[in-house]
Amino acid sequence: MLKLCTLSSGSSGNAVLAQADGTKILIDCGITGKAASDRLCAIGVDPSELDAIVVTHEHIDHIRGVGVLSRRYGLPVYASVGTWNGMIDTVGAIAQENIHYIEADTPFAVDDAIIFPFATSHDANESLGFTVSDGKKCLSLATDLGVVDRYVYDNIRGSELLVLEANHDENMLLNGPYPQRLKERIFSDSGHLSNRICGAICGRFLNEGGREKRIILGHLSQENNTPEMAFDTVRRSIEHAGGRVGGDIFVTVAGRGDPSPILEA
Ligand SMILES: [Zn+2]
Ligand SMILES: [Zn+2]
Hints:
- There is one protein chain.
- By secondary structure, the protein is an alpha/beta fold.
- The chain has helices at about 35-40, 60-65, 65-75, 80-90, 150-155, 170-175, 180-185, 195-205, 225-240, and strands at about 1-10, 15-20, 25-30, 50-55, 75-80, 100, 110, 115-120, 130-135, 140, 160-165, 215-220, 250-255, 265.
- It has a single domain (about 1-265), classed as Ribonuclease Z/Hydroxyacylglutathione hydrolase-like (Metallo-beta-lactamase, Chain A, 4-Layer Sandwich), CATH 3.60.15.10.
- Helix content is about 30%, strand content about 25%.
């Protein structure tokens, strides 16, 4: 049994609850420990039930509450060497036994959950995305990445539940107020995925027979996107691929400050 829910999504803070059978994993905690605890309680999960925190990369919108939660609940924290190097000063002291190093393409287990880290292209030290399995089905998180190449696609294509990045509307970003350098960074291969590319991936899932998927669109830009634009762009791509949102494939948009629906598989 798998469950997936975003507690918070976007540049102000990201945190995702992934559950595989009895094991509850927090992927990133870019909101404060208190906010994460409150939102877990709001979806009926006591934070003391968490089994681990897994971190994608060291940007502050992914690590703000990692140290507090690890210390309060004695939680092991899993991150790449590069991510640990980038976040250790910010997260503060973590008990030695709770520091775990992971790397792309080397799966590891946390109780009932098997976790497959994969490398993402992002302007961070050693960023990762994750696929989590209960041994039967899979869920994936792929946000904070500039491209979805064959390698990333192969890592997420088999998952029933997904959080996929739909960061910006390309025209809004192009014509918006950001300085040129920042626009170029976001558009680059180590930046963030646009609604259009996210939609193209969803269309590709359908073309390859992946009609059972349930997808949360996440990490939306506050300045260069709206939930309606992200949803509509992805819906149009799915329809273009011959599918129907709500019929073939379920799509919802992650809230910035409140939990998404809990997806189950
Ligand atoms: Zn981020
Ligand atoms: Zn980032």
